[in-house]
Task: inverse folding
């Protein structure tokens, strides 16, 4: 109705400011957000360097950062090869865990009988330590790589599954009523309502699963003790320990940490990008 | 449609509306929740085609519950809801064309205002381009066409409610169920929306069931007021408001209006008095 426009037009100019979110951070704060972590990192490395030189720590106990860097450069062909192997297992496991976790969560949301029948096994999957089942999986799996993949998948699967299942269950009842009222099919309710509502839960699961997949890929490799060209970072760490090549051990460790941080960073960024327009978790409080 | 002068289209005066064929009939409805709360007890109500019925009652008397049962959301514990004039689908469910405005805005936070209003049409298979005109027209009715691309969290409480009203209007339903739709609005916007709602009702001949706390609002809008009491929720009185349409400021300042308001208030007081332990 045209008569109503007056109120909204009068209100629009003030309200329109709200329509561009994320613009509220001052430039100085943005700079600090980068400077503070960098300064912290430099300070830590400096402390490490100072400690090893000041106390004359032997390099087979604690090598200085320079030695580690040197080893990183010299051993890069070996290390990068191992990193690639570990990354492949991690991401393959994560990928399968995402697809499987979401699909099974959807299945659970469709029928409470399926949920009743399967949930004990989901819990068993979760509570059994991967190191304990790794030997069995190594026997059953066709290759060591496949065994590692299965182990990593087992660990990454549960957070994705349980978070998504929780999210699918947490849909606003009023919105469910609304969909029912307009005669939405099960499929439409799933696509247009339950899945978007579960997205924040799924993304929280993804962030946990990303880190866990990496950890599991490494732990499983320790358990498997595989060797040769197809070996990942875990094996290189063990090997360096046997040979007392501590700088290389540190370099491999650093690569692992870096990978973990990167995975966390990427999944957090993804989560932020997907939620920034609407979810409380991704929006600055503004009153 | 917003340009049509209201006095040119008055297919439903209050008098004719009261005599409309029954469109929905509540037959001795009771509702007991699983925690033992008796929300409704033996409620019977017939709503005629083209009527504007207000459910007026104190908080917790089962107005929302009654409205949900009319909409077919949640089964009544005993009793039946009948839609005598509506066709039934293969499963035997009446194919009601209902628009529902919930007490809370009930918007999808991940979708823009446009997509929220598009939803009912989208569920019936209308593409975004096919629905655009109707969605924008509905948004215009509530004065929010400039906010089509905003997200619900960027709107005020009253604006969210208006989006929710636009979503209910977008399907041009035969029956409109509204649960305190204007409670969160300021007096001026509320009055505007009251006027607009009345005009749309006169224009399209909808049947409206309108839940409210406000005596004044119910008298101004309705052709009939159903007064309910709490614990257990039940109908205790009915008041038909026979003032002619279109209603406007002259009705709101008339003695007839204040008489109706006094009658409704007295009924409501006795409704609350019936539960003096509250
Ligand atoms: N899901 C539920 N489970 C249990 N009890 C409920 C539920 N929903 C409502 N009730 C109870 O039913 C009664 C009626 O609730 P209803 O929401 O219909 O009241 P109302 O008249 O709409 O009140 P208000 O004006 O405050 O919105 C209340 O006493 C409430 O406690
Ligand atoms: Mg209510």
Result:
């Amino acid at each position: 109705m045209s008569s109503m426009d007056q109120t909204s037009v009068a209100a629009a100019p003030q309200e329109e400011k709200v329509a561009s979110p994320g613009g509220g951070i001052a430039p100085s704060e943005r700079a600090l957000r980068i400077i503070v972590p960098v300064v912290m990192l430099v300070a830590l490395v400096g402390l490490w360097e100072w400690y090893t030189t000041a106390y004359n720590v032997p390099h087979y106990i604690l090598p200085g950062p320079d030695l580690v860097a040197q080893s990183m450069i010299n051993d890069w062909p070996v290390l990068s090869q191992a990193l690639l192997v570990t990354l492949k297992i991690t991401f393959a496991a994560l990928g399968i865990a995402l697809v499987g976790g979401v699909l099974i969560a959807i299945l659970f949301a469709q029928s409470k009988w399926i949920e009743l029948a399967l949930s004990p096994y989901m819990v068993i999957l979760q509570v059994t330590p991967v190191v304990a089942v790794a030997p069995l999986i190594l026997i059953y799996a066709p290759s060591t790589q496949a065994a590692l993949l299965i182990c990593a998948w087992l660990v990454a699967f549960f957070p994705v599954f349980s978070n998504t299942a929780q999210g699918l269950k947490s849909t606003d009842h009023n919105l469910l009523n609304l969909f029912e009222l307009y005669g939405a099919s099960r499929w439409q309710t799933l696509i247009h309502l339950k899945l978007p509502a579960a997205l924040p839960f799924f993304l929280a699961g993804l962030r946990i699963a990303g880190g866990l997949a990496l950890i599991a890929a490494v732990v499983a490799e320790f358990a498997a003790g595989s060797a040769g060209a197809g070996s990942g970072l875990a094996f290189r760490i063990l090997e360096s320990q046997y040979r007392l090549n501590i700088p290389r051990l540190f370099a491999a460790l650093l690569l692992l940490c870096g990978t973990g941080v990167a995975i966390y960073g990427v999944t957090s960024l993804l989560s932020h990008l997907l939620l920034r327009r609407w979810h409380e978790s991704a929006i600055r409080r503004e009153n | 449609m917003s340009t049509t002068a209201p006095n040119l289209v008055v297919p439903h005066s209050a008098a004719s509306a009261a005599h409309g064929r029954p469109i929905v009939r509540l037959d001795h409805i009771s509702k007991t929740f699983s925690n033992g709360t008796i929300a409704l007890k033996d409620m019977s109500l017939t709503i005629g085609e083209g009527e504007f019925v207000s459910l007026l009652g104190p908080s917790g008397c089962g107005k929302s519950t009654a409205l949900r049962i009319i909409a077919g959301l949640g089964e009544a514990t005993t009793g039946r809801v009948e839609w005598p004039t509506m066709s039934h689908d293969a499963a035997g469910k009446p194919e009601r064309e209902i628009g529902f405005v919930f007490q809370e805005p009930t918007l999808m936070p991940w979708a823009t205002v446009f997509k929220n209003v598009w939803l009912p049409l989208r569920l019936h298979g209308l593409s975004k381009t096919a629905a655009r005109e109707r969605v924008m027209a509905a948004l215009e009715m509530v004065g929010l066409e400039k906010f089509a691309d905003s997200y619900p969290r960027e709107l005020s409480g009253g604006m969210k409610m208006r989006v929710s009203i636009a979503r209910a209007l977008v399907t041009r339903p035969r029956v409109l169920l509204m649960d305190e739709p204007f409670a969160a609005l300021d007096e001026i916007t509320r009055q505007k929306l009251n006027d607009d709602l009345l005009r749309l009702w006169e224009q399209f001949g909808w049947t409206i069931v309108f839940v409210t706390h406000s005596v004044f609002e119910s008298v101004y809008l309705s052709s009939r007021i159903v007064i309910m009491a709490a614990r257990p929720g039940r109908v205790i009185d009915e008041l038909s408001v026979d003032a002619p349409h279109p209603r406007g400021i002259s009705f709101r300042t008339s003695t007839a209006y204040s008489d109706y308001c006094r009658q409704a208030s007295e009924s409501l007081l006795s409704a609350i008095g019936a539960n003096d332990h509250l």
Chain A has one domain: 75-275. Residues 1-23 of chain A have pLDDT under 50 and may be disordered. The interface with chain B takes residues 1-9, 12, 15-16, 18-19, 21, 172, 174-175, 177-184, 188, 192-193, 196-197, 199, 277-279, 283 of chain A (CB under 8 Å). Residues 186-224 of chain A form the longest helix (39 residues).
